[in-house]
Design goal:
Blueprint lengths: L1 H12 L11 H10 L3 H12 L4 H12 L4 H25 L5 H12 L9 H10 L5 H9 L1 H6 L2 H8 L3 H23 L15 H4 L3 H10 L3 H18 L3 H15 L3 H4 L5 H13 L4 H12 L8 H10 L1 H20 L8 H14 L1 H7 L10 H25 L16 H9 L1 H16 L3 H7 L14 H11 L9 H9 L10 H14 L5 H10 L8 H19 L28
Helix pairs in contact: 5-7, 6-7, 11-13, 11-14, 13-15, 14-15, 15-17, 15-19, 17-18, 17-20, 19-21, 19-22, 20-21, 20-25, 23-24, 24-25, 25-27, 27-29, 29-31
Protein name: Negative elongation factor B-like
InterPro entries: COBRA1 (IPR010405)
Pfam family, one: COBRA1
């Protein structure tokens, strides 16, 4: 049965030859069946179907004398002619003749009956590739045949996809899944560092990722396909709330920008805004000049074009954009402190908060289809930020107190509670919460143990549990490596684990994973008795995922190995944290 199937497939390959007036195997079989002199019949068949070059006939016997089979000779000539023809097709397509595509269509019409013939197929695929508009009938034939669809060039597939959204979706879907898996894998990386984290790769480096490059190639210059991908991303963002789809939306546009695909960039109203924001992300800072440009784009959204706000909000919801905006906010506050100025007096700060608010409201805007900038809560500026500044003042006052001679010291103790306004806004306002979380990262980077112990318990209850999101926990665990020596203190361990991480690890598996990531990195520094308790607490239940179980097993093995051999002394982490120098006034204020 298998042999018969193979024979049928073989016959299919050569079925197109008779259409072109060329004899095939069936013709030879019929000739040999009906002839009286088979040898003469074979000679006649060879004469009629061989290379029609009179001077060649006398030369062929020399090949026979050298033992070269006729098949080998004809195959070598065929291969050479095929390469020449494919080169000629490319030359015609790249030429400037007005009738160049007519010539290619004529060649396609003549050769297409042999499309299933492996030796001829590359020529036909080459013709299809160079036709800007393949005849509809041929496109349908290619689409209907899985083998042909698989081998045809992406230029041909684009013409098929633009009228078949479901088929294009099937092609794109695995790439989008792969992208999300890669981003989540980066957030759960076993490498913990304050200098090399999720946000370390530059925008251009990220755009060299496999998924972005493949999607860019699939889209080419086709605006319709680009719009389809954007629609897929919006739909998936709405369905999952996964902000990595926002990152891909921005990366895709900038990847097309890198390739100078003006056909798409010129019609995407977000292009110039994304280009400017991309430069800010590269610098991890929004300077005054770019802030004015970004504000110009936002203020320039005309009546009747408000729908563009949906795409702008999605671009601002990208975690890399958000990271840049909040870091710029913190740096802006540092500069305001050095100038004794108030937050409400800084137009740049107000713009950063406006963009943060627009980005944080992306899901609501796209879901409701009400394209209007969310109203910014001014009390974030007038009440929340001053409350955050009061924490800085408390910290500075305590630090100065500790440096005084013993006879001048008062009985001042480090405060343990937080201003009610700070806690309330971190719970009720997403922009305030984001700024508060980055302030926690900032003090961790400064290795300020006291402030960290004071703030971590307040993160148990934040807006939409943002403090237990993967991005923040990824950054926090990296920043805590700077305080590795402090984990020898039960007080510090209690603040980090009991008062924060362990409050939700049993209900949030991602928190469980981040706890284990941190301990895999710092287990040698953690107080032995506390580590023992942690191991019992963090033992994964049966229903846990394999990743949690694997991390726990790895930690267990490391602890057993460290009992057998003493730990090697670690090198002190670099103090170069990339912080910007800020002039500090002599008045009792301190930069964040």
């Amino acid at each position: 049965a298998l042999a018969r199937l193979k024979e049928r497939e073989r016959l299919k390959m050569f079925a197109g030859l008779p259409e072109l007036g060329i004899s095939n195997g069936e013709d030879l079989k019929e000739t040999l069946t009906n002839c009286t002199e088979p040898l003469k019949a074979i000679d006649q068949f060879q004469m009629e179907n061989g290379i029609l070059l009179p001077t060649l006939q006398s030369a062929l016997p020399f090949l026979d004398l050298h033992g070269t089979p006729r098949l080998e000779f004809h195959q070598s000539v065929f291969d050479e002619l095929r390469e020449k023809l494919m080169e000629r097709v490319a030359t015609i397509a790249e030429g400037k003749d007005e009738d160049r595509y007519i010539k290619l269509e004529e060649l396609l019409e003549k050769s297409f009956p042999l499309v299933k013939m492996p030796s001829i197929q590359p020529i036909i695929m080459q013709v299809l590739k160079h036709l800007p508009k393949v005849p509809e009938k041929k496109l349908k034939q290619v689409m209907a045949d899985k083998e042909l669809y698989k081998v045809c060039a992406v230029e041909v597939k684009r013409q098929i996809w633009q009228d078949n959204q479901a088929l294009f979706g099937d092609e794109v879907s695995p790439l989008l899944k792969q992208y999300i898996v890669e981003k989540e894998a980066a957030l759960f990386s076993s490498d913990l560092s304050v200098l090399h984290n999720f946000f370390s790769p530059s925008p251009k480096t990220r755009r060299q990722g496999e998924v972005v490059l493949k999607l860019t190639q699939m889209i080419g210059k086709n605006v319709k396909l680009y719009d389809m991908v954007l629609q897929f991303l919006r739909t998936l963002f709405l369905r999952t709330r996964n902000v990595h789809y926002c990152t891909l939306r921005a990366e895709l546009l900038m990847s097309l920008h890198d390739l100078d695909i003006s056909e798409i960039c010129s019609v995407d109203p977000c292009h110039k805004f994304s280009w400017c924001l991309d430069a800010c992300i590269r610098e991890k800072f929004v300077d005054a000049k770019r802030a004015r440009e970004l504000q110009g784009f936002l203020d320039g959204v005309k009546k009747g074009q408000e729908q563009v706000l949906g795409d702008l909000s999605m671009i601002l919801c990208d975690p890399f954009a958000c990271n840049t905006l909040v870091l710029s906010t913190v740096r802006n506050l540092q500069e305001l402190l050095s100038q004794d100025a108030l937050p409400r007096d800084s137009p740049d700060l107000l713009l950063l908060l406006r963009m943060l608010s627009l980005g944080q409201g992306a899901w609501d805007m796209i879901d409701s289809q009400v394209f209007k900038e969310p109203r910014m809560d001014l009390e974030v500026v007038t009440r929340f930020l001053p409350a955050m500044m009061s924490i800085v003042v408390d910290d500075y006052t305590f630090t100065v107190e500790q440096k005084l001679p013993s006879e001048e010291k008062s009985s001042l103790t480090y405060p343990t509670t937080l201003p009610e306004t700070f806690s309330r806004y971190a719970q009720e306002n997403r922009v305030a919460c984001e700024i508060g979380l980055y302030y926690v990262l900032h003090i961790a980077k400064q290795r300020n143990k006291n402030a960290l112990q004071r703030l971590l318990p307040a993160l148990v209850d934040t807006y939409n549990d943002m403090a237990f999101g993967d991005i923040f926990l990824h950054l926090l665990t990296g920043h805590l490596t700077l305080l590795s020596d402090e984990f020898g203190s039960e007080e510090f361990c209690t603040a980090v684990f009991d008062n924060f991480l362990l409050t939700s690890f049993s209900s949030k598996e991602n928190v469980h994973r981040h706890c284990l990531r941190l301990l895999n990195h710092l287990h040698q520094k953690v107080l032995a008795s506390y580590m023992e308790t942690l191991m019992k607490t963090l033992e994964p239940p049966k229903q846990s995922s394999e990743s949690v179980k694997d991390l726990y097993t790895l930690l267990k093995e490391k602890l057993e190995a460290s009992k057998k051999s003493p730990p090697e002394p670690e090198e002190a982490p670099s103090l170069d944290l990339g912080l910007h120098p800020v002039t500090v006034p002599s008045t009792p204020t301190t930069p964040l």
